[in-house]
Amino acid sequence: MNRQYLTIAKNTIAILLLATLAGFALLCLVYLIPAESVEKTRNELHSIMENETPNFVDERFFTYAYGCKNMSDGFIYRLSGEDQNNPLFYNAVGADHEGDNRYWDGFMVMVIPLMAFLSFGQIRFLFTLISVVFIWYIIYKSRDRLPWYFSFSFIVGLVLINMIVNFFSIMLNMVFLISFAFMSYFLKKYSSKMNEIDLYYCFLINGILTTYLDRYTACLLTLEMPLLIIILINIKEEGISSLKNNMKILLYSILGWGIGFSVFWFNKWIISGIVLKKSIFTTTISQISMRTSTNADSSPVYIEGNKGGRLYTIAKNLVSLFPTHGENIFPLAAGLVIITVLMIAYLFYSKGRLKEPQKYLPLLILIILPYAYFFIFSNLCQIHATFFIYRMQLVSVIGILYLYFETINAGKEQ
Q: Which residues contact 344 (CB under 8 A, 6 or more apart)?
């Protein structure tokens, strides 16, 4: 057993080192593309941003829901226009823009080459098409592996997180592309014979890709959504006997994802510090400290509207699921009460109950996980609730609806 763990440790280090070198090399490669090759698309992007969010100000992209572009495409605009007289490595790590060199912005590996051949509208179209195909495949494939109400819950969840906004923002869409890709893979390939070590490596790579491609928007999605597929398949196929296996899977998958996510980011800081000849750790550690130990009301970061503590952070993210910015609260609340009453009434009418409730413990952990994240990273999740973070609740929405229908089904089988 000790030899097995030693092998896992060696493989983990090798994967992380290779991924770090490959990720940095790819960024260097795309920044060799001449600036004039992407200038036309870059100018078009500038025009689009001015029309959709004038003066690059964070504004709601749609008026009926909390989804916001948050000018995430502004990062693409700046990064695609780096001065090519700068040293290559300098541009690859985000140049000397405070904060940006903590990220690396690996999504530019895909975006810059596309900008050389396509307009920005066409690039948006391409990424939207990829997302829609993934969504279709997940719904199609889930018919074979899961009950019909999984796909229903999945669609409801996508509506509540205002998925349509992601189709207009390439950067926002990255975390969903990773999530959907791994969901599709597990719907196709997963079986209970797949051991936890294999899943550890899968989620190690998942965590690395999340750090590389996502700009810290709704990072937990890439962990939660693929895990949701695995846990639900095991529950459906093995019943109560799935509990032990699912708990082990949770442990190994979270460990793999956490190592991939955090250590890859740590490697980026080291390389950025070497390239820029400055301590990236100083600003990074101060950011981490602020995001975890303070709330938005005590933060120097500007935030509009009400501010509060950790419970307020959770409440703000919950409210962000609903289509209001404070307007028409009464009809919205009335509608929610009516829907809730009807659902509860139907639950009693169906004599609903959870059969073998213990087997749902891993699912409950996934449902709660976003709220634990909101509580710990209160500052971050309060400031960016209506931009990015509330979308982590996708797994919670799906999980709660899934449990509701499981309860209904169990009642009908009596």
A: none
